[in-house]
Amino acid sequence: MAALPYRNYIFDLYGTLVDIHTDEEDPAAWAALARFYSYYGARYAPDALREAYQQEVAARTAGRAALRQDSHEAHPEIRLEEVFQALFQARGAQADPALAVHAGQFFRAMTTRYLRLYDGALEMLEMLRAKGGHLYLLSNAQRIFTAYEMQALGLDHSFEAVYLSSDWDCKKPDRRFFDLLLQQHHLDLAHSIMVGNDGLCDIAGAKQAGLATLYVRSNLSPEEPLPPADLVLPAMDMARMGAMLAGGQG
What we know:
Elements: E1 8-11, E2 18-22, H1 27-39, H2 46-61, H3 80-89, H4 97-111, E3 112-117, H5 121-130, E4 134-139, H6 143-153, E5 161-164, H7 175-184, E6 192-196, H8 199-208, E7 212-216, E8 231-233, H9 238-245
Parallel strand pairs: 1-4, 1-6, 4-5, 6-7, 7-8
Antiparallel strand pairs: 2-3
Helix pairs in contact: 1-2, 1-4, 2-3, 3-4, 5-9
């Protein structure tokens, strides 16, 4: 068996392994969430709930630098379960953290139009593991959504460690987020590569941390020129990605 060119493979999630589309502007979703809140004594009109949610998020992110805000990873440096809990409390309703998480997950389910793996993603990850690669996840994401979406997609046992930005109060491309993973797992930079679909968050951030990089342009990539990654995949193709990461020409 040919040796892998890297020992450690660090993956982004959304737009790299997982294809997702959400619509947080859907009036029907806000109506359903308002009904959910009313079950527990927190009464809102749908538009009032939406406005309260937006104000609560804005207050918690005040002073934080804005990066690219895709709907699937909005405000990843805060904990959205705290926002959903505050919305109960603002109407005098008692809500423990578990109920706040359920409210957030209900809203996520109502606003998700589709959630799926890119074709061949699981096979590509399994190939790298079978060849001795160590796999890690580093994602700008909310744990209350992403941990469960990974389980639904069969990714919950694919990685040796999962780092989600909502757990750490920082996000890519902040070097601190990369260093958390690198230092806590004693990863050798010379034998590690970051794989992602965002030239700023994944590629520029990883390069600042000293990592090799593979950029893949997917349907969720920002509109940007191809970044100066070490390896570039101009269109989503898991077979080619696997070949490139395993040392082939793709």
